[in-house]
Amino acid sequence: MAKQDDQFKKVVSHAKEYGYIFQSSEIYDGLSAVYDYAQNGAELKKNIRNYWWKAMVQMNENIVGIDAAILMHPTTWKASGHVDAFNDPLIDNKDSKKRYRADVLVEDYCAKIEGKIEKEVKKAAKRFGDAFNKEEFLSTNGRVVGYQEKINTILSRLGKSLENEDLADVKALIEELEIVDPISGSKNWTEVKQFNLMFGTKLGASADSAMDLYLRPETAQGIFVNFLNVQKTGRMKIPFGIAQTGKAFRNEIVARQFIFRQREFEQMEMQFFVKPGTQKEWYEQWKENRMKWHLSLGMGTDNYRFHDHEKLAHYADAATDIEFKFPFGFKELEGIHSRTDFDLKAHEKFSGKKLQYFDHEAKESYVPYVVETSIGLDRMFLAIFSNSLVDETLEDGSERTVLRLPAVLAPTKAAVLPLVKKDGLPEIARKIIDDLKFDFNVIYDEKDAVGRRYRRQDAAGTPFCITVDHDTLEDNMVTIRHRDTMEQQRVKIEDVREIIMKEVDMRAWLMKM
Ligand code: ATP
After folding, report:
1. In the CATH scheme, what is the code of domain 1-72+214-393?
2. 87-196 — its CATH code?
3. 478, exposed or middle or buried, with CB in 10 Å at 0-12, 13-18, 19+?
4. Less crowded by CB within 10 Å, the N or C end of the chain?
5. Where does the pLDDT of residue 2 fall: very low under 50, low under 70, confident under 90, or very high at 90 and above?
6. Which residues approach ligand 1 with their CB closer than 6 A?
7. What are phi and psi for residue 512, nearest 5 degrees?
């Protein structure tokens, strides 16, 4: 655990030191669970968004993208169920005066048991060596099976109590498990209460005529209310999808773990409209598609897993999370939900307008079913950033910190470094930049010894360094150094663009899907 905490602290401080993420309003001591993306962070975030958008919209003939407003008519949130049901079960600790999400306390308790399972697996793998069969071990080892059964029993009870809104039982569960406040170690809990997560605001200047609005807690509703507009103007035939990326706001209670859980965050969502009865197939299809998208970035198959929901939201008939191994363990990165016709039907009811699709072949109208994929851009950022940050010991015994960002997403693709600040080398470096800047973000760096400059670029995540030296004056060649392998090649200046393009071109990455 201590090791995990250290790694996470490193991620947070590295993100600040290298211009990726700053705390919001830092000079005023910050605003809790709100963050700003800095010069490199903004680029990385934009590249992730772009990679998602291309894979979703550009690569799929039957998916189009929109950009709906953050403010929506307040009835939207009655229809969606958010006014009545967008609640978190909260519990306060009377000694520390801290407030927690009751379900998260129970889930964290289970995560600890899971940690014990992982320990057993590691121990056994060491003992049995090559003969170790993980699946078999998990299903036959008495202690591990016991742990797993305990987790299942707890989560299934939690699921049932939440579904039945039996908050007294959630409290009872916390007491029976003897869960303590992570800060004070105290078991002195209040009752569990519900709390609505939407941020309210007002439209209009005068107090009497102002209208109460909410900042959207999810982007999905902007798509549902536009379903028919898009279908008609885009002449879309079912099955088809509508995608969008944008800010969402939740007054999260347990806002911690850096950008993992913020009060203002960005979602990348796609709602796929299908014929009723076919939703199961599409749900499976989108599970597969989304996992392929993640794996295309090459961050390791072992770092992802599906987690099917025990407790389904009021609108869903199937739901799963794609979980990622963050520095603090496996947690939700993306949700894939089969949302039935709940939202469109609710908007029909509340607006009095028909939201139906006329199927020309079947000659019938129906309200489509929806399968959605919903990923947090900030969580994806954290997944990539934390996974990429590694400390390496090199062959000569020296250390380096390197941010192995997938090259396609790196904020700056190359740094151009004149070996010295004189003899015409800076001028050549500037000329190279003036050419490359049409295609990539490139930077110029002439300060410090070249070895230090390499290290600085490694830590910032720049995939290539291009060094101009005295030989360049004679042979028009430069040294290109690769961040991950540290391999250096002598190449013609005119070939540099193509070498970089080969590694950062989105086309090649998308083709891995
Ligand atoms: P959680 O259970 O972690 O609160 P959720 O199930 O409420 O998440 P969804 O409503 O399914 O999340 O939202 C879709 C995605 O939006 C999530 O998978 C996550 O990546 C992202 N997301 C949700 N809440 C936040 C938040 N407070 N900060 C950052 N990202 C978030």
Report:
1. 3.30.930.10
2. 3.30.40.230
3. buried
4. N
5. low
6. 218, 250, 252, 261-262, 265, 267, 332-335, 374-376, 378-379
7. -75, -10
